[in-house]
Amino acid sequence: MEEGTSKSPSHLKGTGSAGELIGDPDPFQWDTREGCEVRQILDRVADKWSLLVIALLDRRRLRFTQLRREIDGISQRMLTVTLRQLERDGLVERTVHAVVPPRVEYELTPLGGTLHATIRALVTWTEEHQSEIARARAAYDTREAADTQL
Predict the structure, then answer these.
(1) Which of 17, 93, 102, 109 is the most exposed place for a label (fewest CB within 10 A)?
(2) Is the dihedral of CA 120, 124, 126, 127 positive or negative?
(3) What are the strands of the beta sheet with 62-63, ordered from one edge?
(4) 116: which residues sit within 8 A by CB, 6+ positions away?
């Protein structure tokens, strides 16, 4: 079997002519190859800067400088790149006001709003389970420290 080939049953179905998938693929399994569109979208919306921008734009418009002040540690360049990518994906809308100096505001699109609901669920899960995760981390660190002393 070729290196990197998955042995999971969902990947053993094979393909027909012209790459047509044979069998019933798992609808919750996505392709892990770098060129997969689902993976590209997940990479975009799940990065820390995108998550923070989407969270901050929930039901409000913010200017670039307001976003930059609110997001600790983000550079001007990284915020610009993140906003452009989110705008390209249809999650954020950019409005330029013809004033001097130009004023630019950002807000979530309806599509971005649906993603915010998903992010809110993830944050809620994290808050509910943070103490369990802290205990698991402490137990892991204790085991690792004991293993390195052997």
Answers:
(1) 17
(2) positive
(3) 62-63, 103-108, 92-97
(4) 54, 55, 57, 58, 108
Q: How far apart are CA 32 and CA 100, in angstroms?
A: 47
pTM for this one? 0.68
pLDDT in tens, 23-75: 555 655 556 666 678 888 888 888 899 999 999 999 899 999 999 999 999 99
In sequence order, the β-bridge partners of residue 21 are: 15
Residue 12: count other Cβ atoms within 10 Å of its Cβ.
10
What gap in Å lies between CA 45 and CA 52, rounded to an integer? 10
Q: What is the CA radius of gyration of the chain?
A: 21
Does residue 118 sit in helix, strand or coil? Answer: helix
Which long-range contacts does 91-98 make (Cβ < 8 Å, 24+ apart)?
91/45, 91/54, 91/115, 92/53, 92/54, 92/57, 95/61
